[in-house]
Amino acid sequence: MFVRTLLAALLISSMPALAQTKKDPVKKPITAPVSAPTPKTTTTGAKTITGATPAPDDRAKQWLVLVDDKNYAQSWSEAGKAFQNRQKTDAWAADASKRREPLGAVASRGLKSIDVSRSNIAVIKYDSVFAHKASAVETVTLSFENGAWVVTDYSVS
Prior knowledge:
It is built from 5 helices and 6 strands; from the N terminus they run αββααααββββ. Helices cover 36% and strands 32% of the residues.
């Protein structure tokens, strides 16, 4: 009780000092029109990242849903050129199936880390729980290509 009283007294005693710091006691109405904030933009070489561009971790989650649903052909087509040049659609489907099917369905996935220290590259790690593996780390590497984040590599361990 004493502490509350002391804190209240200190707060009240500091109010006149705070009020004196303002020179103009007359409040003026805001007359400038309020507009929507402009999206933040960052230029990366010839490409631009805007506030409307999905963040790399959001894009990674969208892509992982395709893999979770065993929609390997679409996950391949939405991946970046480096990913597609490394293996064709059928090879990716076989590889992804071999990696993921023994794990079972994904039960949960939580963001572990995001590394964007390299230019136009993001490495996203998730702590994941699968039906047949209680603890796994999924790593999704993305690059910024043609105005969007695209997956260039995936691993699960």
